[in-house]
Task: inverse folding
């Protein structure tokens, strides 16, 4: 066992090979990565994983990313999601309740086969409509609700079109793609809040760090992704993408 010279806490070893000593030591308390060898002599996979760990350990990384995004575009979606979650303390997030509280109750109807969900009028109310014929899993349903709520609270152009369902949607393609990206960013932050994902990942990550060799490390990473997906009630694919976005694991 090795202890951190700065805080005295136990260090986690990081291995490049099952038959060699650790090539780095990690201190979760000080958020530091201490190398035993020059990065250039490590395997490419070890260098990539250490780079991801160093990004995770750096406390200012997410603040720098947020400042670059600014108040518009994806940064706007991120900020709006955080505002909605201000009083939410537990996960998984009750996305259907949140949607209803913000004036967008959820309804199920038959939609066109290519549509998973949409925003529509129901009498005097605007509602989120889920395609009852297409949604397969509870995780997919939650994602569609979150994405459609994003379109609504971010006041995307789809809301204008939904008031006249007999008319085709007339939104320029670049604008539509930008709105879809923004809605997906909102959905990811609402269902998988960054601070909570980082906190839960930090609890489970030591099993990845202790893995011996690339194959075991990948298996442990898959296990961690599955555990987090269950915690947040999302699909493993959605959680993997979220962890990659947060630079907690490598693509």
Result:
């Amino acid at each position: 066992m090795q202890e951190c010279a700065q805080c005295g806490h136990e260090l986690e070893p990081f291995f490049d090979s099952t038959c060699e000593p650790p090539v780095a030591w990690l201190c979760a308390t000080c958020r530091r990565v201490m190398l035993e060898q020059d990065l250039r002599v490590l395997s490419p996979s070890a260098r990539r994983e250490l780079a991801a760990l160093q990004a995770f350990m750096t406390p200012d990384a997410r603040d720098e990313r947020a400042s670059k995004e600014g108040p518009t575009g994806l940064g706007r979606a991120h900020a709006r999601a955080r505002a909605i979650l201000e009083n939410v303390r537990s996960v998984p997030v009750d996305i259907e309740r949140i949607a209803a509280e913000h004036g967008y109750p959820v309804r199920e109807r038959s939609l066109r086969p290519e549509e998973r969900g949409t925003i529509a009028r129901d009498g005097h109310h605007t509602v989120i409509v889920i395609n009852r014929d297409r949604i397969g899993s509870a995780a997919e349903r939650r994602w569609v609700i979150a994405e459609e709520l994003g379109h609504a609270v971010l006041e995307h152009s789809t809301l204008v079109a939904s008031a006249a369902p007999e008319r085709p949607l007339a939104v320029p393609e670049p604008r539509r793609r930008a709105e879809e990206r923004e809605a997906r960013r909102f959905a990811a932050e609402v269902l998988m809040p960054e601070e909570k994902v980082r906190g839960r990942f930090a609890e489970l990550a030591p099993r990845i760090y202790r893995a011996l060799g690339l194959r075991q490390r990948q298996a442990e990473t898959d296990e961690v992704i599955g555990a987090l997906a269950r915690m947040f009630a999302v699909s493993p694919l959605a959680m993997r993408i979220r962890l990659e976005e947060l630079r907690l694991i490598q693509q």
In short: The chain has two domains: 12-59+195-245, 89-191. The chain has eleven helices and six strands. The chain has a mean pLDDT of 80. Strands lie at 12-14, 24-27, 32-35, 106-109, 117-122, 125-131.
